[in-house]
Design brief:
0% strand
Length: 128
């Protein structure tokens, strides 16, 4: 399987699933922000983000203007967020704490649209 299609499916389903989880239970957003104050949760989250970001970048670092760019940017974002949480936890948490639940919901809605776009690219549900 082509790595681009694999990552498009992975990130598309991931974004779709988490949008619905956070829509059904918006208290989870606040819980995640609260849990970032726990050092064990923070280190585990940073480590997972770094690993996912690195794997995404190693297997898919394609900078062409298509759905492949979205996948690459997601990987780089995951890597930088993981590194920021691991290296500068207090500054990163305070930066993330500025975002309120409504802003996070707006961001997740945008990510939902990206997820639908990625899934449509792989499954060709709607032809553009």
């Amino acid at each position: 399987m082509d790595y681009s299609l694999f990552f498009a499916k992975f990130w598309g389903w991931y974004l779709l699933i988490f949008f619905f989880i956070l829509s059904v239970n918006p208290k989870r957003i606040k819980q995640v922000f609260d849990d970032l104050n726990d050092q064990k949760f923070l280190i585990l989250t940073a480590f997972i983000a770094i690993v996912i970001g690195l794997l995404n970048i190693i297997f898919h670092n394609i900078w062409e203007l298509s759905y492949k760019l979205i996948i690459t940017l997601i990987g780089w974002t995951a890597l930088f967020m993981g590194l920021a949480l691991f290296s500068f936890p207090k500054r990163t948490i305070s930066f993330l704490a500025v975002a309120n639940i409504k802003l996070v919901q707006l961001i997740y809605t945008i990510l939902l649209l990206l997820g639908i776009y990625l899934l449509n690219t792989t499954y060709s549900i709607v032809l553009f």
